[in-house]
Amino acid sequence: MPLPRSAVSAFDPDLTDRPAVARQLNFADHEAEVPMHTHRKGQLILALHGAVTCTADNEIWIVPPNCGVWIPGGVPHCARATANARLNYLFVEPGAAGLPADCCTLSVSPLIREMVDRLAREPADYPSDGHAARLARVALDELVEMPRERFNLPISSNPKIRAMADALTLAPSDRSTSAEWAKRVAMSERSLARLMIRETGLTFGRWRQQLHLVIALRELASGAAVQDVAAELGYDSVNAFITMFKKALGSTPAQYFAQRRAEKRSSPKHAPDD
């Protein structure tokens, strides 16, 4: 049985000059780790099933349901997908649309999701005056209107904060205090507190909570049970985890994902025709 190949080798978006091209990847056929790489085109990552986290621009990004992570062209990035992940990628030529110049999470309407899914079935060299070209243009026009969301964790290029992020990503149940972390990275607690604010804009407590939210969304989207996620993150009870989740996103995990499933069911069956 052949070994799975890297997703990077599956498609080179820079071989075409079309304003936008889309591709779908099933990570049952590819390695979970997507190595650091870059390309000329910007990239919107949409999760159809499962979950993926990206690292780009000194931040960790989660691709939650009904959102997409936007990575401008020329920005180095890597990713890790769950084994059941199925993703749509929309690659956008620089200057083809007024999209943000920095990485961000964009809310993505059902209409855009359907159009990107339809465009993923078109060849990369589709005729510049055909239906696919018009579809790409409408998708880009819609995309620039989408609001930003906050599903990211600032990690900074500072080696001490990077080390903390790496450690807590591997062991998110670690409940060490800021004083204990300060000792680990050979700083005073006050100096670490100032460094966190300067580099991430968050206190240590808020930063770790955001990391927990990023991990929770990834695991819940891949099908993990709420009880298992709460335990993985080191919460004393499921209720404590649900309280954190609701405070951050305005709904419980069950409500959050039920709403996303309802929005998906109500999405149009087909993209706009000629």
Automatic annotation (TrEMBL):
InterPro entries: AraC-bd, Homeodomain-like_sf, HTH_AraC, RmlC-like_jellyroll, RmlC_Cupin_sf, Tscrpt_reg_AraC-type_HTH. It holds the Pfam family HTH_18. Keywords: Activator, DNA-binding, Transcription, Transcription regulation. This is AraC family transcriptional regulator. The keyword DNA-binding applies. Residues 182-259 form the HTH araC/xylS-type domain.
